[in-house]
């Protein structure tokens, strides 16, 4: 049986950060990366731009073959993890082969969550999670005249905009009473919704599909209120969830994701998890939460890699802070932190209807807990650090709200360590 000191399953941001962290402390230990994907590493966040044509598929890769050669990494695409035998420190791959490891990182990401709609298995539909998904969707969009997007998260909204710009008639169906409910408040969501309506899209919030069936056009959708829709292109963008079937019988504890501590250690010795498959401590709560965003994946991957290599310079995971940016029809929106107003908290909002600029900030005891904006310019990474470091902003709050980009960077330049 083949053996490796470090085995990393997955190939996106968390996995790559772990590779770099391991090699900083252990440049020689054998290191193998296996991934179910058929390509070199890429970020799922770039896929909407592959669909739109803004990013060429051959130019999106995060690392090349030379990177893996220089770092003495065996990179193996098309190698999915089928089962984890933690009692013997071995991983079973889909082709039936086995790999023995000393340290294992599960960075297997997430897959589209397909809703249990009656008839969904009788129609053709698209999802968007892999490069191959993006290429198929790009080709389909060019031919579509009548499209329906299920789900109004960021993936669905990106795709809907591409469809609108390609000239299709587009309807967005969302169960929640607003668009982008997991990211923005109702004011910001209404601004996003209006931009889509102004560009010809139809929005159906507070609606649920109860049946799908084939039609001469492609698919027929029946909504809970009796409305029917026809689609020659159906995109299912109703969220993602980690695939964890390979954990059966492994002893690795999991809930919504793989449960980890502040060093990304799972409940089993020699096994760590990071990225979209990991359920780690939230910054605003002691409970473990899913925070499937790119910045968090990089932090978790770095922590896991340092822990696996025994790097004494490790800094434990500080907890997940949501951070999302979204560009739509030449405008942009950003959300950082918690939208929940804490007990005794203060909410400050600013809205200029003429310019379409909206800012909302939440404070507790002078410390920022959340900031959200549409067409407002501020650095999401800086705001995240202001939250993580619990910096008292009492004396500069008015200046920060007036010019969050410049003042945020000024504060961090004085406190960054």
TrEMBL record:
Coiled coil: none annotated. The keyword Metal-binding does not apply. InterPro entries: FAD-bd_OxRdtase (IPR050260), FAD/NAD-bd_sf (IPR036188), FAD/NAD-binding_dom (IPR023753), PadH (IPR054806). The keyword Cell division does not apply. Residues 5-283 form the FAD/NAD(P)-binding domain. Keywords: FAD, Flavoprotein. Its cofactor is FAD. NCBIfam families: PhenlGlyoxDHPadH. Belongs to the FAD-dependent oxidoreductase family. This is NAD(P)/FAD-dependent oxidoreductase.
């Amino acid at each position: 049986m083949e053996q490796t000191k470090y085995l990393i399953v997955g190939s996106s941001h968390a996995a790559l950060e772990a590779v770099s962290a391991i090699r900083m402390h252990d440049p020689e230990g054998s290191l193998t990366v296996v991934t179910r994907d058929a390509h070199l590493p890429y970020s799922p966040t770039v896929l909407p731009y592959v669909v739109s044509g803004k990013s060429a598929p051959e130019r999106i890769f995060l690392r090349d073959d030379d990177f893996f050669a220089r770092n003495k990494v065996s990179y193996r695409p098309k190698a999915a993890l089928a089962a984890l035998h933690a009692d013997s420190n071995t991983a079973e791959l889909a082709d039936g082969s086995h790999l023995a490891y000393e340290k294992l990182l599960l960075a297997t990401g997430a897959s589209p969550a397909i809703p249990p709609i009656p008839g969904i298995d009788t129609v053709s539909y698209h999802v968007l999670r892999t490069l191959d998904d993006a290429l198929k969707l790009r080709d389909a969009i060019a031919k579509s005249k009548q499209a329906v997007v299920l789900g109004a998260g960021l993936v669905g909204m990106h795709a809907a905009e591409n469809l609108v710009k390609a000239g299709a008639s587009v309807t967005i169906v969302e169960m929640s009473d607003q668009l982008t409910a997991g990211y923005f408040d109702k004011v910001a969501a209404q601004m996003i919704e209006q931009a889509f309506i102004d560009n010809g899209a139809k929005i159906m919030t507070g609606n649920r599909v109860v049946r799908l069936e084939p039609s001469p056009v492609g698919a027929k959708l029946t909504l809970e209120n009796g409305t029917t829709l026809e689609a020659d292109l159906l995109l299912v963008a109703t969220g993602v969830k980690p695939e964890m079937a390979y954990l059966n019988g492994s002893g690795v504890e999991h809930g919504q994701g793989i449960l980890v501590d502040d060093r990304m250690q799972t409940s089993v010795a020699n096994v760590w998890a990071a990225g979209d498959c990991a359920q780690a401590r939230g910054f605003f709560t002691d409970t473990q939460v899913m925070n499937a965003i790119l910045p968090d994946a990089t932090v978790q991957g770095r922590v896991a890699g340092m822990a696996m290599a025994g790097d004494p310079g490790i800094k434990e995971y500080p907890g997940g802070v949501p951070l999302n940016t979204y560009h739509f029809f030449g405008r942009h929106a950003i959300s950082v932190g918690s939208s929940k107003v804490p007990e005794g908290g203060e909410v400050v909002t600013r809205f200029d209807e003429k310019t379409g600029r909206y800012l909302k900030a939440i404070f507790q005891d002078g410390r920022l807990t959340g900031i959200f904006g549409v067409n407002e310019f501020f650095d999401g990474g800086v705001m995240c650090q202001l939250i993580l470091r619990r910096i008292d902003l009492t004396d500069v709050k008015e200046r920060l709200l007036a010019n969050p980009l410049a003042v945020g960077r000024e504060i961090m330049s004085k406190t960054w360590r």
